[in-house]
Design goal:
mainly alpha, binds heme C, 8 helices, Cytochrome Bc1 Complex, Chain D, domain 2
């Protein structure tokens, strides 16, 4: 009777595996189509912590108050005081106490993240419906309510990246960069 030595069987088995993999790679399931630049742009909205990626446009505190009262107050309370959802204002100086109040103002280390988050995720029930101008404006209003900017400051790609958040130095790296390399 014809039998394969075990060595021959392993070699033959490997050959069949490689062939099967190559066939799989060549046959496309013919699903979907390549994404267009325009469609990709809608997903390409991340803003770096240093402000890189902030779009054109601008907004004032006064404009932001109108946006907030129309689009945000129902969930975040008058002047961002909270209820039924997250409080956005206050809590400064509480982070090292047992009664921490973490808000955008007291806790978040980068102002650019506020813009990124609101543009990406808010209003919670209709995300990504605000114009960039409205996002700048409501970001300005929240920063103003937190005593981080003045009432007549205008937020845009140039000014927002310069805003220093109170808790900017409050985070430690769990894995600090090695200096011995
Ligand atoms: C329908 C309710 C609703 C509306 C309207 C809404 N939000 Fe929110 N918001 C939420 C909820 C819920 C969360 C918490 C989401 C989570 O933790 O995933 C949140 C979180 C946030 C946060 C982050 C808070 C933190 O400390 O983590 C910000 C900033 C924010 N919202 C801003 C806004 C702004 C600005 C608007 C208006 C343009 C808005 N929200 C409208 C429900 C809402």
């Amino acid at each position: 009777m014809f039998t394969l030595s075990s060595r021959t069987a392993i070699v033959l088995g490997s050959f069949m595996f490689v062939t099967a993999t190559q066939v799989t790679a060549q046959v496309s399931p013919s699903l979907g189509e390549a994404i267009s630049e325009a469609d990709l742009a809608a997903w390409d909205i991340s803003i770096e912590t240093n402000g890189d990626g902030l779009p054109d446009g601008s907004g004032t505190v006064t404009q932001g108050r109108s946006v907030f009262e129309a689009q945000c107050m129902a969930c975040h309370g008058a002047e961002g005081a909270g209820q039924p959802h997250d409080r956005l204002v206050g809590g400064h100086g509480t982070l090292d106490s047992m009664q921490q109040i973490r808000t955008v103002g007291s806790f978040w280390p980068y102002a650019s993240t506020i813009f990124d988050y609101i543009r990406r995720a808010m209003p919670f029930n209709t995300p990504q419906t605000l114009s960039d101008n409205d996002v700048y404006a409501v970001t300005a209003y929240i920063l103003y309510l937190n005593d981080i900017i003045e009432a007549d400051d205008v937020m845009n790609a140039r000014t927002l990246r310069r805003v220093e958040m109170p808790n900017a130095d409050g985070f430690v790296l769990a894995y600090p960069q090695r200096t011995d390399k």
